[in-house]
Amino acid sequence: MGKLGGSFLPSLRAQSRSVPLLKPTNPSSSAPSAPFKNTKQNHKKKQSSSSTKGEQQQQLAPKLPLNLFKTPSISEAKATYDAALAARGHTRSTPFHNALLKDFCLLRPNLPNSLSLVHHMKEKSGFAPDHATFNIILGLCCSNADMAAVHQTLALMTASGFPPDNVSCDLIVRALCSSALEDEACELFKDIASSNLKSRSSSPPDMFTFNFLVRHLCKTRAMSAVYQFIDEARALGLEPDLVTYTILIDAVCRSKNLREATRLLGVLGEAGYKPDCFLYNTIMKGYCLLDRGAEAITVYKKMREEGCEPDLVTYNTLIYGLSNAGKEDIAMKYLRVMVEEGHLPDTVTYTSLMNGMCRKGNATGALELLKEMEDRGCEPNSCTYSTLLQGLFKAGNLDKGLEVYGVMKEGSMKMEAACYAVILRALCRGERVADAYEVFDYAVASKSLTDVAAYSALESSLKWLKKSKE
Questions:
Q1: What pTM did the predictor assign?
Q2: 88 within some domain
Q3: For residue 104, is it within any domain?
Q4: If DSSP states are collapsed to H, E and C, what string results for the chain?
Q5: Is 463 within the bounds of a domain?
Q6: How far apart are CA 408 and CA 388, in angstroms?
C-alpha cells in the first residue's frame, strides 16, 4: 500500500542567514495635506489625480518583446535589463520589472542568479518586489525541480514579509506534480496550510489546489495513500467537498471497485452533500466498465428518486451499458424516454444502440436506426459507419455493406482497423476479391491504416481463401 513520505520542508518560519532579504521598500512619506478649503475643487483635483495615476499605470504596463534575455548569464542579464530600463525611461513599475524577471526565468537560471537580478533591479530603479515577484522565482525553482531552492525561496518569502499564499501553494503543487514529485507536493501543501493556520492567514491553500492534488494522487498512488493525505489535510482545516468525493468515486470506479464507490457515496451523504448528476453518471460508468450495464438501471432509478434530473450523458451511459449487455430492447425504451424528456439523442446514443443490435445479428434493425438518426438531423460519424459495416458484413449482407461503405468513402471517413479486417474477410469468403482490393486501396489512400497493416490483413484473407479452395 502506498504511503506518503515524511516532511521535506523545514519550518517556513526558519530564516536562512545565507539568503539576503528582499524587504519591500516603504513609500516615501507624503507632505502634509492642505486644508480642504474648497471641497468641489479638491474633489475635482482628486479625480484628476486618480485619472492621471490610471493613465500612468497604463503607460507603465509591460509591453516587452518576447525572449528579451538570450542567456542565463547574470552579467548579460544585468546589461539587458539596463538597456531595457534606459529605453523605457526610469521607472519603478512593479509589473514592468516582474515581466522582465519572468522573461529571464524562462531561461531556467539558478536561484542565486535570479535573486541577483532582482537586487540589481532594486539598486537601479528602486522597484519594490511583491508577492508576484517571489512567485515567479518560486515557479522557477519548481520548474527546475530543485527542492533545496524551493525551501530557500519559501523561507525568504516569509522573512521578507510575503509568506506563501494560496497562489504560491497552487504554483508549487502543479509544478511539482508535473515533475512527478507528488510526495514533495503533498508535504509542502501541508506545511503551507499549517503555517497559514497558525498565523490565521486570509489566503490559505484553497480547494482548487487541494482537489487538483487529490486527483493527481488518485492517478499515481494507492487509494490508502490518498485517504491518508485527505485525513492529514482535514486536521489542517480542509474538509473534502463534493468535488473531492466525485474525484474519489471516479477513481475507484475506474479501478472497478464498485463496493468502495458505494461506501464513498454513503460517506458523502453523511458529510451533508447530495450527489449530483455528474456523480451518478460516474457510478453508472463504473458499472459499464464491469460489463454490468444492466445494473446501471438501479442507479438511474435511485437518481430519479433523489430528485436529480438525468442529462444527456446519463442516458448515453445507460444506453451504452444496456446495449453492451445485450439488452438493446430495454435500451430502445430509454431512447424513447430521453426524447420525451427533451434530450435529443446524439451520435453516441445511436452508435451505442447500433452496436448492441449488430452484436445480436440484427444489422437490419441497425440500418433502420441509421435512417431514424438521419431523419432527426443527427450526423453519423466514422465510428457509426464502422459499427454498422461490421454488423452487415458479419451477417453476410455484402451488397448492403458495400453500399454503406460507398457512403463512408464519399464522406472521406477513415476506417477502423477492426472494421477493415472484417470487411476483407467477408469479401474474400464471398469470393469478391476485386471488391476486397478496392477496400484495400481506400484504406491505404485514406491513411486509415499503415501500408504494412493493410497489406497484412489482405494477405491473410487471401491465404484463407486459397486454403479453402484446396
A1: 0.72
A2: yes
A3: yes
A4: CCCCCCCCCCCCCCCCCCCCCCCCCCCCCCCCCCCCCCHHHHHHHHHHHHHHHHHHHHHHCCCCCCCCCCCCCHHHHHHHHHHHHHHHCCCCCHHHHHHHHHHHHCCCCCHHHHHHHHHHHHHHHCCCCCHHHHHHHHHHHHHCCCHHHHHHHHHHHHHCCCCCCHHHHHHHHHHHHHCCCHHHHHHHHHHHHHHHHHHCCCCCCCHHHHHHHHHHHHHHCCHHHHHHHHHHHHHCCCCCCHHHHHHHHHHHHHCCCHHHHHHHHHHHHHCCCCCCHHHHHHHHHHHHHCCCHHHHHHHHHHHHHCCCCCCHHHHHHHHHHHHHCCCHHHHHHHHHHHHHCCCCCCHHHHHHHHHHHHHCCCHHHHHHHHHHHHHCCCCCCHHHHHHHHHHHHHCCCHHHHHHHHHHHHHCCCCCCHHHHHHHHHHHHHCCCHHHHHHHHHHHHHCCCCCHHHHHHHHHHHHHHHHHHHC
A5: no
A6: 11
Residue ranges making up the domain that contains 153? 10-15+67-163
Name the domain count of the chain: 1
pLDDT digits (tens, 9 = 90+) for 24-65: 444 333 333 333 333 334 444 444 444 444 444 444 444 555
The CA distance from 85 to 51, in Å, is 25
pLDDT-derived band of residue 23, with 50, 70 and 90 as boundaries? very low
- The reply to whether 258 falls in a domain is no
Gyration radius (Cα) of the chain, Å: 32
Nearest to 417 by CA among 379, 380, 389: 389
Q: Cell 427533451 maps to which residue?
A: 342
Residue 137: pLDDT band by 50, 70, 90 thresholds?
A: very high
